[in-house]
Amino acid sequence: MSTGILILYALVIPYIVLLIIVDIGMFLRDSPRRRRGHLPSVTVVLPAHNEQERLPATLASLARQDYAGSLEFVIVDDRSTDLTPHIIDSFAESDRRFRRLSLSRPSRRLSPKVNAVNAGIMASDGEIIITTDADCEYPPGWVNELVDHFAEGVVMVVGYVETTRAWQSRSLTQLFETIDWLSLMLTSRSLTRYGWKFASSANNQAYLRSAFTAAGGFGSSGRAPSGDEDLLTQRLGRLPGSKVVFASSTSARVLTRPADSLRQLLAQRRRWVSRYHHPIHYHPAFLLSIAFLGFSSIALVIMLLLLPLFPAAAPWVLGLWGLKLLVEFIGITCGSLQLDRRDLLGWPTLFWAVLHPFFIAVTVIMSFIRPAAWRSSSSGYRSQLMRRQWR
After folding, report:
1. Which of 142, 134, 273 is nearest to 203 (CA)?
2. Per residue in 165-199, pLDDT tens?
3. What b/e readout covers 323-355, taking b as 16+ CB neighbours within 10 angstroms?
4. Which of 80, 123, 190, 213 is the most exposed place for a label (fewest CB within 10 A)?
5. What is the model's pTM?
6. Beta strand 205-208 with 154-159: parallel, antiparallel or unpaired?
C-alpha cells in the first residue's frame, strides 16, 4: 500500500501545483485592448448538421449583433436531411448578412465539423474569423467585444463559454456541467495571461485570417482528430510574436446549451478526451497537464475505494484529497466572484469539487474502453493515421 500512496502523491501533487498556478493566474492583468479606429471585416462561421430545433434561436441571436463594420454570417449546411437549409434561407432573405453554404460530401482529410468550418472560411473573406456552434446564444455586443481584443500582436481571442445559471439548472448534472465549464474557462484565462497558448473552445473563438493562413490552416500537422480548436490555438500561438488573449467580459460570453443527461455529458467528454489519444499533434506541456488531471483522478478514486481494506492509509489519502478539494474550492470561488457567477458560490462549488475526480476518472476510462471514432470519411481516423505513418 505504501507504493500506492507514493504513486498517488507523485500524480496528485503536481496536479495541485498546476491548480495553484491557475489560481494565481486569475489575479494577473489582462492584455490591453486595441486602439479604436479601422473596423476590420468579420466573418462568423457556423457549421450545422440537422439543427432544425436549435438553429432558429441561434440565428435570431446572431441577427441582433450591432457591429458597425462589415459583418457576414456564413452558415455551413453539412449534408442536413431536415429543415436546416430552409431555416438558413429564411434568415438570409430577411438579413443580407446571412448566407448558406452547402456541403455535399465529407472530406478525406478533415473531420466533419472541421471540414464545414474550413469550407466557410474558404468561401469568405473577413479579416477576422469567428467560429461558433448551432446551439449557442450571444449578447448583442458579442462581435464588438471580440474584435476589441485584437490589439497589436494578438492573433487569436479565446471567448468565454457558459451554460445555465444555477437556479436555471434542471438537474444536478446540469449544475455540475455549469461549474465544470467555469473551471475550464478559468484555466484557459489563466493560461493566456501567462502567455501559454494551449486551448480554446470552438463555440467562441476568433482569429486573424492572415494568421490562420500563415499557420497552414486546419490539419497542417496531420489528419486531426475531432474539433482541432486546441491544435489551431497551439499552431497560431507558435507564430513569431503572436499573442492569444482571453475575453471574459459579459458582452463576450456565449451561452451554450447544457447536456440533457449524465449519459450525454459523459459521451461528450469521452469524445473530448479521445482526441488526446493522438499525442503526435499536441504541445508536450499541454498533454502532460491533461495526463496529470486524468491519472491523478483515477488514482484518487481507486485509493478511496480501497480505504476499507487499508484503513491505515486513510490519513494520507484523505489528507491529500482534502488539500486538492481546498485548492479547487478556493479557485472556483474566486473565479465565480471575478466573473459575476455568484450563483455558483457555496454548496454548488463544493458539490462539483467532491464529484470532479470521479467524473474525470470515469470519462478517461471510458475513452480507453470505447474511444470516440472521429471519422472524416468511410474509414476512421486511427486507420488513416496508421496508413499515413507507413507511407
Report:
1. 134
2. 766 777 899 999 999 999 999 999 999 999 988 88
3. ebbebbbebbbebbeebebebbeeebbbebbee
4. 213
5. 0.89
6. antiparallel
